[in-house]
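Long-time lurker. I teach an intro course on protein structure, and each term I like to show students one example going from raw sequence to a predicted 3D structure in token notation. This year I'd like something fresh instead of my usual example. Would anyone be willing to generate the tokens for the chain below so I can use it in lecture? Attribution to the forum is fine with me.
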Amino acid sequence: MVKECRWFKGGAITLCLVSSLSCNASEYGFPLSLRLGAGVTPSDPTDSFPYCFDFKTRLIPGSAGSSLFRTSLIKTRTDFLRELSVSASAAGKYAFFSGAASGSLDEKYSFSSDSLTWIVYLQTDLGKSEVYDESLKAFASQLIESKNFAQFATRCGQELITQERRKASVSAIFSISNISQEQRKTLEGKFSGEANTAIFSVEASTSFRNFVKEAAKTSRITVDVVTVGGSGAADLAALFTDYSDLAAISQILRTYTAKLSFDNSKATSYQSTKMTRYGWGGNVVDFSIADIALSDYYITYRDIDIIKRKAYDLLNMAAQGQIELTTDQTNTLKKAYSDSDALIAKIVQTARACRDDEKKCISAVAFTAPSVAWPKLDPVGTLVQRKKTVECNESPGPISFQVKFQCSQTSVFRGVAKWANISNVDAIDRFGQRYTPVVSAESIDLRSAYEEMNKQYGGALTEGAFLELVTGETIGSIAAAKARGWSIREMTLSFLFGAQSANTGGLQTALDFTFFDGKGNRTGRQAFMY
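-- Reply from a regular --
Happy to contribute to a lecture. Here you go:
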């Protein structure tokens, strides 16, 4: 009797269908691209084989499943791949063996303590198809009859792909970076995930909106849309006008997946059977341990590669005069790059040795990512709205359908920044409208701001904790913060907009603030969402 078994290690999962004695079938996941009715070799499933069988195909009745909406906070790369239904083992085989290391879904994302990623996704199970009435082609049958098993494996593979499953998912991936550990911890506490098959609850939508608003006050939000198994990449990111509107985001995802069917989607996983079923007498090798190791290697490889690339980018920017680094910062980045590069080479070497000889598979714990004190280059710490006044008057003529009131709004933002390095500020809303805020002189002293916030914490807030919250830097005292150039100023912006009611709460938009130095170079960026 066939049953399912799993091997677990470090969060990585390798699935196979096994008999009571040995593994007679395997499952291969995305991003592998195999062919139903063709052969595969477990040690390198990225290599395709010609068809050695004649066969028919059919859909498996009742194999389609329901759709699932989900919001998730992503803390690790393992979580990210699992949510997107991506096989870390398969991704590792592409990265280590096929020369196709670029283009993986997760390579651009960092899951370090200074960043945060969350996703909203919709997955729909479109069902399975299978081969039946399969029979060896004449040349393949002759190889079996002559017991030329080695040539058969080279020509046809060691396993036959007998089933494929088609699941389609579309994910909106949101991320922020350059945040402090305290800010990350606070945001993690505010996130509440939910999964269901219909629509998100009112409570979930409200919680999500509040979370995104807080995140937007911390750093600029970026969004990518990733499709797996669908009809191809879709330019959906431009459709998101409000990152906090869970209902609108869900509808965009639902509209995309509504166009998908089994026929116009792609396979996301495959099941195989050993060629021994058809008379092949070659050696059957169990690669399950190697698959587990490759999953762990790939996760570690990507995390370290992010460090290497970040160090390279900062050093390159410094070489071109775009940023200034101290000697200590430069040496730290050079060491991070060198250490990461050496570790990556060792991981790739170990992965290849592990594939060829299971005894050479060692724990990925041996490859520890370097700990790097990244320089804080953004002169902007925090940005909060301190005051908002809205005044609406009925327009003498119609503005647009159901919009009868002309409103004006004045918003005052308080910015903690290294203002001596900033000469100009621009703000752009989600429609591309540009605003130039009026920046005041120093509006409140850092110590006064600390005492004001300390009252909210019942007198338990230390100067260091306050400074990390408002600057993102680890600074021991307010005197030291002033010496580094930190101060507080207020920025006033004025808006005009139409509304359906005179009792509007004000403009609903996102502002992207850009800070410039005296030479016109962009020195910082901060986003704020109402």
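Some talking points for your students: Residues 204 and 215 are 16 Å apart (CA to CA). Residues 288-366 form one domain.
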